[in-house]
């Protein structure tokens, strides 16, 4: 509480009613308070007692005031301040008091009230002050003022009320986050609510700082920020002033402007990061060839994308501010698909003399030729020819083609001008006007008449050339511009004249004037022998109008720019897709009769008797009825129930019996090849038909089906590829299934990526094809998930459950198995610290053994367990096999080798990589006296059924596809299986009799396993899936994937689409030709990109080999520590300084050549040992290589005969391109020199002084195992390295490196941005290259042409494009880093 002051006059008593509410009271209070500016008493007391009267004469206002505790002498009692402000019954605190208390608590000075009297009443503003606790410096805040349109909130009839309203606002400013309003009088509580609405508006405007609890700290921070901003502004001004003097700079930066708008800082040094950036140059001859190629081949906006008006307006504003003419930008946005293409279009089409300064090369000077001057006559002629606006480069090219004849060159250039633009035509044979004499006589007569008519404005330059001055020419603020029309006698005179305009006007205006004048001549003066006067007169009358409205750049850019296309080239139209004919649903009596005859055969009856024993037979009629009544049917059945073999037969038999056999076409998908093969064999046997006739299969690389086939078993990928290659639209996908009556998706419970993708596609197809039936089959009863997925789209769903036919299975866990086998692990054996079951206090030897075993597979325990099971079955005289579940091929091979030592066992591997013949061996009976042991991956869980299995050994491990962030690629990673998967494995032991399941994990661990596997769509990178979705014509990829049964995260989808754009598979929202190819290649996208480019550039064998190396592992072994130096030397023998992968490639090719030459096996093994190569790894690479060749052959990509060797520089470039955006920038140290006899010699930098930087991780280091670890320099002008994997230990290391040069980066990496300070180019958003902006445009356009070549290859896979002009130019750019060969 503050000190009490002396009271000044209070309001007189009201004439009627309660105190503090009537108008009369207010008026009286106003009158009596006019001299009361500082009411200390009101501010600093909470007392409810009447204050003591002042002593002495203080005016009549105190005359009648009683002393403390004394009653009024006469009349009603005067109202107190509380009664005036709060009302008659208010007993709480007042706003002024609350503000004072808050200031005291915060150790601020007392509030200062500033009164203002206006025409509407009184108002107050509050000013707060505070002393700094250390410096004692007084800080005073600006008054708390409301916005002008809210000042009425604190305006009151009396100064007293106004003061409390101002105090309320001041309280709100520093305490708005507290509920102080609950302690305020009613009127001021309502005022607080109005202030809350004002705060919301201020927050929206970005003024939330107004309501900070500590306004003094906020004020200091804002002052500091303001000072810093002012400092930055001044620095930026200084930098921009300096930037104006930089070569090629205009001081206007599109990139920095965009950064500033996004909240970035614009005050940085504009040359930071550019001085050390690699310089990119293009040889004059190479650039000329590229520009000539672009003139003939370039396509702008091939997909016809239309920008919105808002997009166009933003681009026009931005590019106009960067120095382009508004009319040019408006024309460009009408033709282009986005900002980047608009900028490229302008840099190609705008003549050099009208480009912004930043877009010109450093050596450019208008009107000055920079060509070699050894031929002065040629250069003088070219200068004259280019004065009319023709490109100097084009003039040189045409001049040379015209054998140095200036007249023929001028005529050819004019023909180019007339033929450029949309719909332009030039007549090769203009009409010959009638003349009385020879053309020479006619020319002489016309020249004489022109001299008479134009007088001093006429000048004869030579016998064949004259000039006429045009008067009163204006260009904006410029008046009386010196303008001459030059007329040259044409070889076809008088039918044709050659015009030129010589004036200080932009090239495109002069050319537009020439073109329009010639159009007038050809249209109106074709029969006039003396055309020149009329042409000049037309120019004089129209010149100023044409300068104001010159027309489109495209109409003249073909001759004004060396790279602009001569005509508009239409995008190549894709061939219409061919689709099967729709099914004809009509009853055919012959089909029914044929079916009835087949049923009478003895073999069919025998098979039928066996089929009737399966549990599925019991629900045959219900299953058929459910399929007939519903568009979607879900069949849930345990393994061994017969659902996979019988369901499709039930449906087909029903169609036969109704006469619809001719319309039947059932496709049944399987997740693995072995399942499709096994089921096709089994079903064809049960139907007594030959495989490939009534029942067939189609897997990658193998197809056995015919026009007779009614049931086709396919892998999921085969059906997906059929849909992906259907034509590129949703309707094409629907049409591709026109001849299919039923689609059966088996094993949907596995939730693979392909299965979920198919579910989403076919759900959309079902809405358009009501006669198509979908059957889902699952080994587990999780029907609710799938049922809800289809019922939400108003599709009818039926459910059929098939009971399993299994015998009891007894479980043995790890502790039981150790007890049965007596297995122990020595103390010297490896113990996995990641063991799930560890009880240090346990003294039980079994628990100790479990602890020492850890979570890794122990092959000795596997061997002992298999031997114990075999012995038990032998002593009990039981037949039957053993099935062992392992995670992958390597584990299977090791187990097969160990079990092979047991003579009583017949051991067979089973995994998806085996060929068909080896896979089928597992179904056959073992040799006499031996027990069959099948060592399998999870393909044996549900996909196939081996009938004679009585015991299962389950390691509990599985390899699942996951995303590896270290190398940004998919990989198979070993992990614990789910409980649902282990249940399926267990069930395999109870197919023919009571069985046993031996689980090599504990009960506790089983409870920690996931209940079901995570759907693959949620745990793998989505680039391949997004590409597949787009390849089928769906533009809204995110929306499509959001409709899958378990949608992936939006961020993952957006990241995948962005990555596809960076890879070149998508151009905006459109699929590129490269993207269409990648969508159908069954490989990681980066490997697929490498193989596509390998096919296009004629190095397919090398590309496939490197892709196989990436997909498997390096052929070199990891040596023990004591042999690392020897291993490194051995590896370096294959290195040529071009990176790790090309080193691996050479090693493989040498090994492969030895195999091809049939070298002795001992010699090959010795070569591997001496070179530290793994024979097994090399064999795996060869197998993967063969698979890739087969897959590419399916889509038509084959390796053509190559007459010449492939340059390794090209292979290196394509290898590096496959890893985008996994790129590191090489930063070399400053050059050092040493003295020698011949002068200073540059020293190679030490390897440790060379630095590497990536976009996301900053500085990284080359891994010691890399062949580039000790490199002191890089061949081929390499300035960047691509990497395959990144490892973070004590430092961040990059491995599997491939160095590459600037043009490889430009041609194959991310988007190219143009820096408009003239400093160079930015690739993929962060990699800088110093160079001319037009180089970036030319290369960007060349990229599009490479995609067109890929499209040609897609349309005709047999075509050899190695000699294509585009491909040869790209190869030369990469090999020579842009310089002339």
Write the topology of this structure.
Blueprint: H1 23-32, H2 40-43, H3 81-86, H4 95-105, E1 112-118, E2 121-127, E3 129-131, E4 138-140, H5 159-175, H6 186-204, H7 215-243, H8 254-261, H9 284-297, H10 309-321, H11 326-335, H12 339-349, H13 376-386, H14 392-401, H15 406-419, H16 439-454, E5 458-460, E6 465-470, E7 483-489, E8 497-503, H17 507-524, H18 532-548, H19 557-560, H20 589-599, H21 602-611, H22 620-629, E9 632-637, H23 643-657, E10 666-670, H24 673-686, E11 695-699, E12 702-704, E13 711-715, H25 716-724, H26 730-736, E14 742-745, H27 753-768, E15 773-778, H28 783-791, E16 797-802, E17 809-812, H29 814-821, H30 845-853, H31 859-875, E18 881-885, H32 889-899, E19 905-910, H33 916-920, E20 931-936, H34 939-942, E21 949-954, E22 957-964, E23 969-976, H35 979-987, E24 995-999, H36 1003-1008, H37 1023-1031, H38 1037-1041, H39 1050-1063, E25 1066-1067, E26 1070-1071, H40 1073-1080, H41 1085-1097, H42 1100-1111, H43 1124-1132, H44 1140-1156, H45 1161-1171, H46 1175-1194, H47 1208-1217, E27 1223-1227, E28 1233-1236, E29 1239-1242, E30 1251-1254, E31 1258-1262, E32 1280-1282, E33 1285-1288, ...
Parallel strand pairs: 9-15, 9-16, 10-13, 10-14, 11-13, 14-15, 17-24, 18-20, 18-21, 19-20, 21-24, 31-34
Antiparallel strand pairs: 1-2, 3-4, 5-6, 6-7, 7-8, 11-12, 22-23, 25-26, 27-30, 27-32, 28-29, 30-31, 32-35, 33-34, 36-37, 37-38
Helix pairs in contact: 4-5, 5-6, 9-49, 9-50, 10-11, 11-12, 12-49, 13-14, 14-15, 17-18, 22-23, 29-30, 29-31, 31-32, 37-39, 37-40, 40-41, 40-49, 41-42, 41-47, 42-44, 42-46
């Amino acid at each position: 509480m503050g000190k009490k002051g002396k009271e000044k006059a209070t309001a007189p008593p009201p004439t009627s009613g309660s105190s503090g509410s009537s108008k009369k009271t207010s008026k009286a209070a106003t009158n009596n308070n006019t001299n009361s500016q500082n009411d200390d008493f009101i501010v600093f007391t909470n007392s409810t007692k009447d204050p003591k009267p002042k002593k002495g004469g203080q005016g009549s206002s105190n005359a009648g005031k009683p002393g403390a505790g004394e009653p009024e002498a006469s009349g009603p009692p005067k109202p107190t301040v509380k009664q005036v402000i709060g009302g008659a019954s208010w007993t709480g605190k007042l706003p002024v008091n609350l503000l004072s208390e808050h200031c005291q608590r915060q150790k601020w000075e007392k509030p200062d009230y500033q009164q203002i009297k206006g025409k509407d009443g009184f108002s107050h503003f509050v000013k707060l002050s505070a002393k700094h606790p250390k410096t004692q410096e007084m800080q005073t805040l600006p008054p708390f003022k409301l916005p002008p349109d809210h000042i009425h909130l604190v305006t009151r009839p009396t100064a007293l009320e106004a003061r409390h309203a101002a105090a309320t606002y001041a309280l709100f400013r520093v305490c708005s986050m507290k509920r102080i309003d609950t302690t305020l009088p009613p009127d001021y509580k309502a005022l607080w609510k109005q202030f809350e609405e004002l705060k919301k508006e201020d927050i929206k405007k970005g003024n939330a700082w107004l309501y900070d609890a500590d306004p003094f700290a906020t004020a200091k921070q804002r002052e500091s920020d303001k000072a810093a901003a002012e400092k930055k502004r001044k620095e930026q001004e200084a930098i921009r002033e300096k930037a104006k003097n930089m070569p090629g700079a205009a001081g206007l930066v599109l990139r920095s402007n965009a950064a500033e708008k996004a909240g970035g800082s614009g005050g940085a040094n504009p040359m930071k990061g550019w001085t050390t950036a690699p310089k990119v140059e293009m040889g004059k001859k190479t650039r000329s060839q590229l520009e000539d190629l672009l003139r003939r081949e370039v396509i702008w906006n091939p997909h016809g994308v239309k920008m919105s008006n808002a997009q166009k307006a933003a681009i026009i504003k931005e590019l106009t501010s960067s120095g382009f003419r508004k009319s040019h930008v408006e024309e460009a946005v009408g033709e282009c698909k986005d900002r980047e293409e608009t900028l490229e279009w302008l840099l190609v089409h705008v003549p050099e003399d009208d480009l912004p300064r930043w877009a010109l090369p450093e050596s450019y000077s208008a009107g000055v030729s920079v060509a070699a001057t050894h031929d002065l006559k040629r250069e003088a002629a070219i200068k004259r020819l280019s004065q009319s606006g023709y490109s100097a480069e084009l003039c040189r090219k045409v001049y040379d083609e015209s054998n140095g004849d200036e007249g023929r060159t001028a005529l050819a250039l004019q023909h180019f001008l007339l033929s450029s633009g949309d719909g332009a035509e030039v007549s090769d044979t203009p009409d010959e006007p009638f003349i009385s004499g020879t053309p020479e006589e006619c020319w002489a007569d016309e020249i004489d008449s022109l001299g008479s008519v134009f007088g001093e404005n006429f000048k004869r330059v030579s016998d064949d050339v004259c000039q006429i001055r045009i008067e009163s020419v204006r260009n904006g603020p410029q008046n009386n511009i010196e303008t001459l029309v030059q007329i040259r006698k044409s070889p076809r005179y008088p039918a044709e004249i050659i015009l030129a305009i010589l004036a200080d006007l932009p090239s495109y205006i002069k050319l537009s004037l020439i073109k329009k004048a010639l159009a007038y001549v050809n249209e109106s003066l074709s029969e006039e022998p003396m055309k020149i006067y009329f042409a000049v007169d037309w120019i004089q009358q129209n010149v100023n109008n044409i300068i104001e409205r010159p027309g489109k750049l495209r109409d003249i850019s073909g001759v004004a720019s060396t790279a602009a296309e001569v005509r508009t080239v239409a995008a190549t139209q894709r061939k219409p897709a061919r689709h099967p004919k729709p099914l004809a649903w009509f009853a055919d009596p012959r089909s029914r009769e044929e079916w009835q005859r087949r049923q009478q055969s003895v073999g069919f009856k025998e098979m039928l008797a066996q089929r009737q024993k399966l549990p599925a037979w019991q629900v045959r009629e219900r299953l058929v009825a459910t399929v007939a009544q519903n568009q979607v049917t879900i069949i849930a059945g345990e393994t061994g129930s017969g659902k996979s073999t019988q369901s499709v037969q039930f449906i087909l038999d029903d169609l036969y019996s109704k006469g619809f056999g001719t319309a039947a076409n059932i496709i049944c998908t399987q997740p693995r090849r072995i399942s499709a093969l096994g089921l096709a064999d089994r079903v064809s046997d049960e139907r007594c038909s030959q495989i490939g006739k009534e029942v067939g299969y189609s897997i990658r690389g193998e197809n056995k089906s015919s026009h007779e086939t009614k049931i086709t078993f396919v892998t999921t990928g085969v059906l997906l590829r059929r849909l992906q290659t259907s034509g590129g639209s949703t309707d094409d996908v629907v049409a591709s299934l026109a001849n299919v009556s039923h689609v059966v998706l088996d094993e949907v419970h596995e939730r693979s990526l392909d299965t979920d993708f198919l579910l989403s596609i076919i759900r959309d197809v079902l809405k358009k094809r009501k006669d198509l039936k979908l059957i889902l089959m699952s080994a587990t009863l999780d029907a609710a998930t799938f049922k809800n997925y289809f019922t939400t789209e108003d599709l009818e769903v039926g459910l059929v459950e098939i009971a399993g036919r299994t015998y009891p299975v007894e479980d043995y866990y790890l502790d039981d198995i150790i007890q049965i086998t007596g297995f122990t692990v020595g103390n010297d054996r490896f113990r996995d610290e990641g063991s799930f079951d560890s009880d240090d206090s346990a003294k039980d030897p079994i628990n100790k053994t479990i602890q020492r075993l850890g979570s890794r597979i122990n092959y000795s325990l596997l061997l002992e367990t298999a031997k114990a099971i075999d012995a038990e079955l032998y002593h009990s005289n039981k037949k039957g096999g053993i099935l062992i579940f392992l995670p992958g091929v390597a584990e299977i091979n090791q187990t097969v080798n160990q079990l092979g030592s047991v003579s009583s066992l017949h051991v067979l591997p089973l995994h998806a990589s085996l060929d068909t013949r080896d896979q089928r061996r597992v179904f056959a009976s073992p040799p006499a006296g031996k027990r069959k042991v099948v060592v399998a991956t999870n393909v044996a869980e549900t996909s196939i059924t081996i009938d004679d299995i009585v015991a299962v050994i389950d390691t509990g491990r599985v390899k699942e596809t996951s995303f590896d962030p270290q190398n940004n690629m998919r990989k198979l990673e070993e992990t614990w299986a789910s409980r649902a998967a282990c249940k399926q494995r267990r069930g395999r032991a109870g197919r023919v009799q009571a069985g046993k399941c031996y689980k090599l994990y504990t009960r506790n661990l089983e409870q920690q396993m996931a209940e079901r596997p995570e759907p693959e769509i949620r745990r793998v990178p989505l680039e391949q899936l997004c590409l597949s979705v787009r390849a089928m014509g769906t533009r809204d990829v995110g929306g499509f994937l959001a409709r899958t049964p378990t949608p992936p995260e939006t961020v993952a989808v957006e990241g995948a689409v962005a990555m596809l754009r960076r890879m070149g598979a998508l151009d905006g929202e459109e699929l590129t030709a490269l993207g269409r190819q990648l969508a159908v290649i069954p490989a990681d996208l980066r490997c697929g990109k490498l193989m596509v480019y390998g096919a296009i550039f004629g190095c397919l064998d090398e590309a496939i080999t490197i892709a196989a190396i990436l997909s498997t592992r390096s052929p070199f072994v990891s040596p023990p520590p004591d042999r690392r130096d020897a291993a490194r030397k051995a590896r370096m023998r294959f290195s040529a300084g071009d990176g790790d992968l090309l080193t691996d490639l050479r090693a493989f090719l040498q090994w492969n050549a030895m195999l091809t030459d049939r070298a002795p096996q001992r010699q090959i093994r010795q070569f591997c040992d001496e070179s530290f190569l793994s024979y097994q790894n090399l064999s795996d690479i060869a197998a993967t290589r063969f698979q890739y060749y087969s897959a590419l052959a399916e889509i038509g990509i084959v390796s053509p005969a190559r007459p010449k060797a492939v340059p390794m520089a090209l292979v290196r470039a394509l290898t590096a391109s496959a890893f985008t955006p996994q790129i590191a920038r090489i930063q070399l140290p400053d050059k050092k020199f040493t003295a020698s006899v011949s002068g200073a010699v540059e020293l190679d930098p030490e390897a440790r002084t060379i630095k590497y930087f990536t976009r996301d991780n900053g500085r990284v280091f080359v891994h010691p195992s890399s062949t580039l670890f000790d490199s002191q320099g890089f061949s081929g002008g390499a300035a960047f390295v691509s990497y395959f994997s990144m490892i973070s230990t004590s430092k961040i290391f990059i491995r599997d490196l491939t160095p590459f040069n600037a043009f490889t980066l430009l041609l194959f990496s991310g988007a190219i941005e143009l820096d408009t300070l003239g400093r160079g180019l930015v690739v993929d958003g962060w990699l800088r290259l110093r160079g001319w902006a037009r180089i970036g445009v030319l290369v960007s356009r060349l990229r599009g042409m490479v995609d067109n070549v890929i499209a040609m290859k897609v349309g005709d896979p047999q075509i050899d494009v190695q000699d294509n002009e585009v491909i040869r130019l790209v190869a030369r750019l990469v090999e020579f880093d842009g310089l002339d060969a």
